[in-house]
Structures are given as structure tokens and as C-alpha cells.
Amino acid sequence: FWRVAVDTGVVTSYTTVGGESLALINGLEVIGNSLFTTGAVYQGGSYQYGIYKIELSGTTATVSTVTLSGQGASSNENFSRIASSGDVLYLTKSQSSSVYSITLAEQGGTTTGTLTEIEPSFTAASYYNTGSEVPFSYINGLVVIGTGIYFSDGTNKLIRKIDTTTSNITTLAGRVGNFADGTGQDAEFKNPDNLLLSGTDIYVKDDQRIRKVDSNTGEVSTFQTSADPDDMSRWTLLGTDIYYYTADFSSNPYTYKIFKLSPDGSVNELELNNYTIEGYVYGLTSDGTDLLVA
Fold first, then answer.
1. 245 CB neighbour count, 10 Å cutoff
2. pLDDT for 180-207, tens place per residue?
3. Which of 34, 208, 256, 276 has the highest CB neighbour number within 10 Å of its CB?
4. Which distant-in-sequence residues (6+ apart) come within 8 Å of 199 by Cβ?
5. Which helix (DSSP H) or strand (DSSP E) does residue 1 occupy?
């Protein structure tokens, strides 16, 4: 784990302690003073998947397992996407159309989570009130705004919303097509994937482009930049800037560079202060002040 100060480029490296040694990490979310991730530890020749809590203090990162209970909870849950709102995590599983919420709590020094499946409900209003449900197979990326879970539907090239109070699906923007800016069904996506939230705007990695979706109106525009989404292994927002890292796989061990994508579309490398991030990196987020890399 690393903390990167974007103003100075100073990197703080953390030593991992605790009962778990993570072999895989898939996304990072900040809740309070802690990080949460989906990931896995390697035990007895196989991966044991779950939800993990990471507490950073000084130069120490303490990793512990979130003990799950509730609907369908098990000790080996492989989640693929993660987002958060308040003290609730929202997750998906690979090749699944279901979303799961995990309400976190502290009990006797142990972090627990109550797992609930949010099974999307299709209605006549699910696709622009046309009476067509337009079901999907899996969720590519998700963000949360209030009671709405917004996600990219790669099956149908859409940005859609699940109302957590009703589980009903509605469609915000897109239709099966290619690239086109517009509002609602006049907009087209080619391959909507990862999402990033900035206020009420949603950035979408869409093949070789970055699109911006107004979550209130469904208006879609193409973000003009020289940045290549294929180079963005992970991305996060800090202030009004997007930060992402790219990997140099020609070196051994692998090394990583961090870039800042500004609102005007300009791209600049974040110069690290006499430090090289190397090894395997799977997660990037921000605590509102610094970047956190894992």
C-alpha cells in the first residue's frame, strides 16, 4: 500500500500487518478512516475470496476480514465491482446481473457486514417507458448517487439505474449503436465499461473514448482529451482532477506511472519524489487529500 501526496509527489509506503495477507485486490473504497476492498488471500493452494478492511496508521496497513452474514453470505464470496455510499458497500459478482449491499458495523473490535441481494426488477418503464424490459446479463461498472445505483450495461450499450428503494430498473442514456452524443436514447455507446463519479456527472470508459453523462438529465457528451482509456488501469477523482496509473510491463518487476487528467482534457505525469512504485498494483482511490494505491 502507498500514499501519494499529489502536491509534492512524496510517497509513503505501508508495511502490511494483521491476520490477512492479500494476494488479490479488486477496487478500493474509502469509508470513514478505513479502506475496503474485494479481494483474496492465498491459502492452502487456492484463493479465498472476501471483503477486507484496511486501516492505515503511520507506515502500517492493518488488514482484516469483514465477517459477512445475511442472505446467501458465505466465507468465500468473489465480488468483482465495488462502490459505496455512507457506511454501505455495493458490489456485483462476475457475469451476474445482481447487486449486493453490505451494511457495515463494528462489534467487539470486529467489522461485520450484513449482505443483502438487490435483484433488479424490470417493468414497463425499464427502457424509456416503452414497455420493453431490455434485460441484461451483467454489470460492467457502478457508482452510487443517493438511492440510485448507476451502472454500465455492456450487454445493451446503456447506462442504467437501479432504485434501491424499489429495485426497479430504468434507463438513463444510450441504445445499441456506436458513438453519438445526445440525451437519453439519442446517445450511443460502443462499449461502456468502468464508471467514475464527479458530483452528479458520471464519467464512462467507452472503448477508446471517455464519455460524460449527466445523471439528472441523461445528456451524454464526449470528453475531449489525449488520454487513452486503454492506458487507465484504474482511475479515481481528487478535487476536479482524474488520476490514473499505467503499468510498464517491459520492466521486471513491473513499474507504474501516475497521471493527472485535468477538466480541460490536458494530461500530465505526476512526478514522484525519488520513488518508484513497482510490483503488482490493483487499486487506486483518494481520501480527498492524497491518492491511495494498493
1. 22
2. 999 999 999 999 999 999 999 999 999 9
3. 256
4. none
5. none
